[in-house]
Amino acid sequence: MRDVAARVGVSAMTVSRALKDDKRISPETRQRVLAAVRELGYRRNEVARNLRLRRPSGMIGLVVTNLGNPFYSRLALGAEQVAEEHGLRLVLGNTAEQVARERNLVEDLVARRVDGIIVVPAGATHRHLSPASLGGTPVVFASRPPSGTEADTVLVDDFGGARDATAHLLAQGHRAVGFLGNPPALFTGAERFRGYWAAHEESGLTPREEWIRRGPHDIPTAETAALAVLDRDDPPTALFCTNNRITLGAYRAVRRLGTDTALAGFDDFEMADMLGVPVTVVSYDAEEVGRQAARLLLDRIERAPDAPSGPPRRTVVPTSVVRYGA
Questions:
Q1: Of 6, 24, 256, 289, which is the most exposed, with the fewest CB atoms less than 10 Å away?
Q2: Would you say 58 and 115 are in contact if contact means Cβ atoms under 8 Å apart?
């Protein structure tokens, strides 16, 4: 700003007033200031300005575990939509399910004075994500609930969706339904396994342990697990998978073996209707998860620090079962 002032031959205060369209600055002087701004490529440092004026940064952070998963990109789109409606910008980070990386990302966002953070947490305990640990920065959890701290949370109906999809397979006459899912330590994997098991109990059935694999986490590991379950003398006639990548891995195994195994999985995905095999999916609005999380966060930002924080809130996004193919 001093460089602009020197070029025009006015004070830095005059430059500041001209940029704010202050009526005390003549149109001629303002035009000279704007010309100098363009010539010098001046850009106001919003971070420094907000620090000086003790104003919010105008940014919110979003920390997810896997940007390669379409669920998280859609969640980000939903959060960004709400942020933009309120004149805010979204800053995105990816942890790759690494707690140390999550800590570093969150600490960096706090150091940059973001107004609040939405986080899909990694690990089993999240005390490092409590507002007290982050200098009072509001935090909202998405997709997975907090452990070791309390915070607003937006979840998908993992249990209900898995139960409904498994019940759909059982209603079609399948009595041998296998399970391919995330490790039990992962909240979504545990809830979706609980739903799978509940559907069997409600039908008076008990799944066989040899049809269950609770370790796959991507397409290659899911394909390997599905081959191990299906390439046997008494394979299940259907598989329930806990996310879209695992469903695609199971599909590869089914095509490789040439079986007519029915598939059901959590998460809808593009071209599910083009696979050439019957597929049942648990569908829900991933963008709504992001929108709901952003709304809860903005409410916390607007209420703090003048109003009591209030108890943590939990929102659950509903699911539906969709069948593709014959």
A1: 24
A2: yes
